[in-house]
Amino acid sequence: MSGIRIKDQLASDRPRERLAAKGSDALGTGELIAILLRTGLKGMNAVDVGNYLVLQYDNSLQALAKASVDDLCKIPGIGRDKAVTLIAAFALAKRMAGELHGESPLLDNPQAIADYLREGNRGYNVEKFQILLLNTRRRLIRLATVADGTLDTVLVHPRDVFRAAIAGNASAIVLLHNHPSGDPTPSEADIKVTRDLIRAGQLLKIEVLDHVILGQKTRERQKDYASLRELGYFYS
To answer: Are residue 85 and residue 138 in the same domain, yes or no?
Structure first.
């Protein structure tokens, strides 16, 4: 099918020209996506396709960012090249968000931990177990991924957790994983692995400060995370 190109639109309607003249804040989400897509379909310009794409994901960039190449290719007008371009754009946004946190943030409470990790974990559609390696002042050394799981399960062994902590010369660690379902409530398995890792850390003199589970806010749930320390699952 022949496409309707952005340059075929009136200059005042072209997203690229509008962005250059007025800045990115003047453009809607569909228009910004149209700049990446460049061409549309017969009867639909690139902005139409961009708006249609956003609509298919309930006007949620968070949901769109989780889409795979195969998922995006199911949308009319989105081929493999455009799908890869969109995924690359979201990946760059995620990396930029990470840079904005600074080199060595202070991570000494659950809110600060969730704020630091939230953007980097939005795109995961399976459980991912990570640890924050911290120095004696509770400042970040680095973030380490320990294991990738499935939609609702991730298997973790203490040797993998503390191998990374020892290699990073960490004084303390924070456990972290996500719940793709959106509900951060800890499962019985989450509680058990937390207590196992606390005991292992005590033997190695590496303190486990918390286990934070990331989810999503809802009208009924004000926080998008759960802290097992705040919930009373850590020993005094």
So the answer is: no
Check which CATH number belongs to the domain holding 28 and give it.
1.10.150
| Dihedral sign for Cα atoms in the order 183, 186, 187, 190 | positive
Domain that holds residue 30: 6-98
Task: Encode pLDDT of 91-135 as tens digits.
Answer: 888 777 666 655 578 899 999 999 988 877 776 788 889 999 999
Tokens of 157: 């062994």
Report the C-alpha gap between 185 and 224 in whole angstroms.
10
**Alpha-carbon distance 183 to 149, whole Å?**
17
142 beta partners: 133
Three-state SS for 40?
coil
pLDDT digits (tens, 9 = 90+) for 179-201: 888 899 999 999 999 999 999 99
Q: Where are the alpha helices (DSSP H) in the chain?
A: 15-22, 29-37, 46-56, 61-65, 69-73, 80-100, 110-121, 158-167, 188-204
| Shared domain check, 57 and 141 | no
Q: What's the distance, CA 138 to chain centroid?
A: 23
Other beta carbons within 10 angstroms of residue 140's beta carbon come to 20
Structural contact between residues 39 and 31, judged by C-beta atoms closer than 8 angstroms: no
Please tell me the predicted confidence (pLDDT) of residue 4: 42
Q: How far apart are CA 66 and CA 90, in angstroms?
A: 9
Yes or no: say if 88 and 33 are a contact pair by the CB < 8 Å rule.
Answer: no
Residue 80 lies in a domain: yes
